[in-house]
Amino acid sequence: MSSNTSGFQLTPGHVYTASLSVAAVFSLLVMYDVAKTAVKRKYRRHRRSSLSASRPIREEEEEEDDDESEEEDETRSVAGESVISVDHHTKIRLGPDGRPVSGLQRDRLVVRDGRMSDTEINMHLSTLLDHLKERTRHHLGYPYNLSFRSDNLVPFLQYSVNNLGDPFVASNYGVHSRDFEIAVLDFFANIYQIPRDQYWGYCTCSGTEGNLLGILYGREKFMPKRDAVLYCSRDTHYSVPKAAAMYRMDLELIDSDETGEMIYADLERKLMRHPDRPALINVNVGTTVKGASDTVDEVLAVLKKLNIPRERFYNHVDGALSGVILPFVSSRCENKRISFDKPIDSVSVSGHKMLGTPMPSGIVITRLEHSKRWASDVEYLNSTDTTIMGSRNGQAAIAMWVALQRKGIDGLRADVVQCIDNAKYLKELLDGSGIKSWLNEFSTTVTFERPPEDVVQKWQLACKGDIAHAVVMPSVHKKKLRAFHHDFVEARQRGTEELPKDPRDTTLFTGGG
Ligand SMILES: Cc1ncc(COP(=O)(O)O)c(C=O)c1O
User: Fold this and answer.
1) For atom 8 of ligand 1, which residue has the closest CA?
2) Euclidean distance between CA atoms 45 and 70, whole angstroms
3) I need a labelling partner for 168 at 20 to 30 A (CA). Which of 202, 304, 313, 332 fits?
């Protein structure tokens, strides 16, 4: 203990309290300075963002956004990178290979030893939100329906909704949405004409998972030899050959015609190469690049012609995109109808494509007997292992159910009619400007010559060689198509790139995208 001349006694308690106060003031000053600098830097760039936005972006909003003033360009220049302008407030950085690099400043997102403040976390999320919002406005190339309402889904993010295991065998984990999942499956079983007591299925994380499941079940049908050959057209999505590689199956690629549809004479020739082995055939309903649909009745006719009995073949339908298009137009194409009244075995569909969900999703439906062959009980789950994944996204099942209920059969049909009409409209616009384009019947995928790179990047077009495509989804309206067409024609007139070949040159389309 010490004292001074005024008689004040400086106790250890005083020293301790004073040092705490100094430390606290110092930390506050440092925190304030860090936060102020960060807020200033970020807020300039993200003043338009709102983390509460969970509404779909409508076209009227796009107009409003376009009126806003130009943002500061903080893009750092990195060797070999270039920058293109998407519009007056958005730029995209392209890497040395010409591909877009993340505009999200990865180095600032590094997880360090200490925690990040909520303010800074929210600023980074805000950056991401801006990015997603802008990229959603300018999207045409991938078959994703970006128009949905997620307002009543938001409260479910407070829960870890996990439908682990078999949807029809409840596990001990109670935070699930199995009833909604089964309602979604019942809907698809109904449109694909299989009675409730004869199907099995589940809500997948995507169309790919459904393909992996369908092909696995197809291989298992021919136990114990598991010697089926997998047949698929050259226009098939890459997940199907991937399944062949994963399951160590022999693969026969069938030629397809200029529209992208399988050539059935070639299927017949290739089946005849393996007379002693069962056949697992992948039927495309909406190919990745050209949106073509194989004709299931033609496949069945080939099997019949070669006298291949039912127990020696398995047909999997990849309906990732058009699994929600064909059922609504099939009165005009009975021979393409997806129906379990025909000898098909499984169907896979993506939920985020034609239907539209705020996360990747999908369904797979199979005949019940196939799931029984594979099923094994898992004590830990108190459920049955029938699926590809263990934990499964219960939020996605709710989202699909909400999307289906909001539309109903009539709404889905209206979406299909609108998308086909709008796809024709885009084709007319392009043809009218001398840009060759291609559109299959019952499809919403318009293929055309590859536009200059700034147009490809702005509109996120999927390209294959000299060809690009736009997939006209329910989130794509005529106004957006006109804006795209305008950009395309303008860029073409600038002559920024050499004009490519005729899109109907099918040598450009080898394999799915
Ligand atoms: C024909 C086809 N099958 C399967 C898939 C894979 O679907 P997902 O992206 O949902 O995994 C796609 C994706 O575009 C596709 O076009």
Assistant:
1) 207
2) 10
3) 313
